[in-house]
Design a protein that fits this description.
- The protein contains 7 helices and 9 strands.
- Strand 5 and strand 6 form a beta hairpin.
- It is globular and about 55 Å long.
- 37% of the residues are buried.
């Protein structure tokens, strides 16, 4: 479907996106709970106080996932909170974060979203991997290979662009380095081919587990020492610094007066400076 007017997004398209995000949330939750012999996700619904809609926080604390959050939201408000648009808005998305007990298992982050304002609409999101002090080249290769193969099947120009953007986005100025080993990132993305854009969004969602689960299966049983755990806690500090100082999702959440518990779900349970 090619849109003649880029601001025109049919309601059925929005419904399709919302439906897909809810299915994806369930898929992520199921995949992570398989790793946990006893723990399950605790789900907490919330309502958006400054407009209509709300979301659901899904939080897991277990023996493999020290903390994992898979959150979904769909909100409507009267005043877009960021500088790149204004007026009434609609926003829906899913965000995920994993903080692993074993320091040899990297932290993973995922987010995809759809935003519509009075004059525009766009897609955004991506995913990235952050080893907490222990980088395994074969894991890095697998992670990037799965992602590139999936995006190349849509358009060979997409992966180089998104891969470049993730390095720029997750650069921490005061640390003078990037957060993690990269991945993909895109924002304000849309073309005149809406069906292709939605296919891209779903490809990002469908590829994420393929990129991280083999790594998790390989690393969760590794032995580690006390000093390994200390290194992990120190690296988590950089993660916290980025999320609180630079992350657009965190800023959007607080400026739109969203649910603070949902916004701060990305924070690790323990950290050390």
């Amino acid at each position: 479907m090619k849109t003649k007017n880029i601001t025109d997004c049919p309601n059925k398209i929005k419904d399709e996106i919302i439906h897909y995000l809810k299915i994806l949330q369930k898929r992520f939750i199921h995949a992570f709970e398989i790793f946990e012999p006893q723990a399950t996700f605790v789900k907490t619904p919330w309502n958006y106080a400054k407009g209509r809609g709300g979301g659901e926080i899904s939080l897991l604390r277990g023996e493999v996932f020290e903390k994992a959050a898979v959150n979904w939201s769909e909100i409507q408000g009267n005043c877009f909170p960021m500088a790149d648009a204004d007026g009434a808005f609609f926003a829906t998305g899913i965000s995920l974060i994993t903080h692993m007990l074993n320091p040899h298992v990297p932290t993973a982050h995922f987010n995809i979203r759809f935003i519509q304002t009075q004059k525009n609409f766009w897609f955004g999101g991506g995913y990235d991997l952050t080893p907490m002090g222990f980088i395994y080249p074969e894991d890095t290769l697998h992670f990037h290979t799965i992602t590139q193969k999936a995006l190349d099947a849509i358009d060979k120009e997409i992966y180089p662009l998104f891969s470049k953007q993730v390095k720029e986005y997750f650069f921490i100025p005061h640390r003078n380095n990037e957060r993690g080993i990269g991945g993909i990132f895109f924002d304000h993305y849309r073309t005149e081919d809406l069906e292709k854009d939605i296919h891209l969004l779903k490809t990002v969602g469908d590829t994420f587990l393929q990129s991280i689960l083999p790594i998790y299966e390989k690393r969760i049983q590794m032995d580690y020492q006390t000093q390994d755990k200390q290194k992990q806690l120190e690296m988590r500090a950089h993660y916290v610094e980025f999320n609180l100082l630079y992350d657009r999702g965190t800023k959007f959440g607080f400026l739109s007066e969203g649910n603070p518990e949902a916004i701060l779900c990305s924070m690790p349970p323990l950290v050390k400076w």
